[in-house]
Structure formats: C-alpha cells, structure tokens
Design a protein that fits this description.
The protein is mainly β. The chain is built from two helices and 22 strands.
C-alpha cells in the first residue's frame, strides 16, 4: 500500500521556493514583558510612566500603556516614557506596559506600578525655586548618577525632571535629591540639567548644567569624544575650544552641529593641527539674541565619526 506524502511536500513542490514562507508556521511567541516600570505623579492631574527598553533581539516595534484594564497610550519602540494627563487629583492609579512585536504578539503586562496623584492647589502660579547645584558621575558605560539640591515651592514640589540636551529623559519624586539613569551609550558625553515641578505643572528654570562622560565599554579602547568643549559668543562671532580625543594620531577634522543639525566640517591643514587645546572661530550673521546649541565630533583614523562632545547653549551678541 502506498503511503501519502507529508502535507508540506506537495506545498513546496507545487509552489516552489516561495511556498517556504507561505508554509512556515506563523510567529505566535510573545516578546518578554518590559522591565523597570515606574510611575511618578508629576502634578495633580498627570503621571509620568517609564520603563526599560526591550532588547534588540526581542523584535519589539512598540509599547502599549494600560491604566487598570484600559489602554491609554500606544508608542513606538524608541519611546520608553510617557506623560498620562487628564487624571483626577487625589486618586490612585495602576499602570502596566506591554511590548508588541512585528507579528502583533503582545507580552504579558509585567509588574504593575501604582501611584496616587496629589491634591490640586488653587491659583498656584508660582514656580518652584531652581535647584541650586547639580552633580553627576558615570557609574558604568551605560549608566550615571545625577544629584541635585532640593527646591522649595509655596505649595510643595511634586517632582524633579532631568533633562539631557533640552529633552526630558527622567522624572524623580519630590523627596528625591538624586536618581540613577540607565540606557546611556558608552563613550559619550551627556549634559544634564534638573528642573523642579509643582502640583500645577509649574516648572523652575534649569539648574546648573553638569557634564558626564560614560567610559568606553570593555574592549572599545580610549574615548573618542572631544573633551572640555566650550563655546563663547562675541560680536559677530562664536569661538569654540576643545581638547582633541586620543585617537592615536593627529585629529584634523571635526563635524560641527548647530541646533541639532550638521552645519560644517572644521579642517586643520598640514602643519596647523593644534596640539592639546584646539580653537576655531566662526563668523556669524544671525541677529543678536539668536540661541544656538552647538556640539562637535572628531573624524577617527578609521574614517568614522567619533562620539559627540558636550552640547553648549549660547546666545549670539551684536
């Protein structure tokens, strides 16, 4: 008696190589649940929710944020924090986050984060005082510790927001005077500032900026970021100063970014490459009062660009 062929064989024979994809079992395996979930009340009506990014191998394309059993936000994979607004004062909330992969599989919710919003303060228009000091240190290639002097407020500080390059990256509680930051890149200069916030979402001005350079990861070699970078505005000009990275040879090219965009490549010719501190003067035509943020990176011996220097914020003068 002749036995029938397995189901997969005629599928491949009839359809050829293309059938391999068609006959492959669908992806039904969910990604791991996001870890490190925290929820911090930012005001009487808002909560800041954060979590750790999924590993690249997990194939995550986005996250879904739930309050109780209701999805309140859906975000792409590069976003690992969100402000949930429109909440009620003096109310408890429970948040969970699920990861979503390209096949539409959802992870489990992982451990929940619970938070209670503070009471609303009527007619609170005064911002907290500025954090007087800021300190920071790298705790590893991908982490840092940032600390600050507590602020005061007429109705009470409800949160401290940590900014990097003008973007809020973390929120800490009102009783905190320091926090750990993770998910950083090795061999990178970060510039952190801290703002205090009250229950009416009034924010203080930035506290003093502080630079942190994460060390290279194991086996990465010496750092590639220009060090001790400064930018000084004078009438019609901006003067840049920095210390060249140790790349093993003279560094002759630097790429300058202004307001987040590549603007020019600074080149030092043969015999003009500075040793130690480097300086470059830009002539500017923009009106006085124009605000620039500037940073630069070096061309490495292998032809790639190195890590960025710290970012500096300046106001042009007449």
């Amino acid at each position: 008696m002749r036995r029938s062929a397995p189901t997969l064989a005629p599928c491949l024979a009839a359809l050829g190589l293309a059938a391999l994809t068609a006959c492959t079992a669908p992806d039904t395996r969910p990604p791991p649940a996001p870890g490190g979930l925290t929820a911090q009340a930012g005001s009487a009506t808002s909560v800041h929710v954060m979590w750790e990014a999924a590993a690249g191998r997990d194939g995550v394309i986005g996250y879904q944020v739930f309050e109780a059993d209701h999805m309140v936000r859906e975000l792409p994979a590069e976003k690992t924090m969100v402000d949930i607004t429109g909440l009620a004062p003096q109310t408890g909330y429970t948040f969970t986050v699920r990861a979503k992969d390209a096949a539409g599989n959802l992870s489990g919710p992982g451990p929940a984060a619970r938070v209670t919003t503070p009471a609303a303060k009527a007619e609170d228009r005064g911002a907290p005082t500025t954090p007087a000091t800021t300190t920071a240190r790298a705790t590893g290639p991908r982490s840092a510790q940032v600390s600050w002097t507590p602020s005061t407020d007429d109705t009470g500080v409800t949160a401290y927001d940590i900014y990097q390059g003008g973007v809020r990256i973390h929120t800490a509680g009102p009783a905190d005077s320091g926090t750990a930051l993770t998910g950083l890149q090795p061999d990178t200069v970060y510039t952190f500032t801290v703002r205090a916030r009250d229950g009416a979402d009034n924010s203080s001005p930035d506290g003093p900026a502080v630079d942190v350079t994460t060390p290279p990861a194991s086996g990465d070699g010496p750092g590639t970021a220009p060090a001790a970078f400064t930018a000084t505005a004078s009438p019609g000009a901006v003067t840049l100063n920095w210390t060249a990275p140790d790349t093993g040879r003279e560094t002759t090219e630097y790429e300058l970014y202004v307001n987040g965009l590549p603007t020019t490549v600074i080149q030092f010719g043969a015999g003009a490459v500075p040793s130690g501190r480097a300086e470059h003067r830009l002539t500017v035509a923009e009106p006085a009062g124009t605000v620039w943020t500037v940073k630069l990176r070096a061309r490495l011996p292998d032809g790639n660009w190195g890590s960025f220097s710290a970012e500096r914020r300046i106001t042009l003068v007449a």
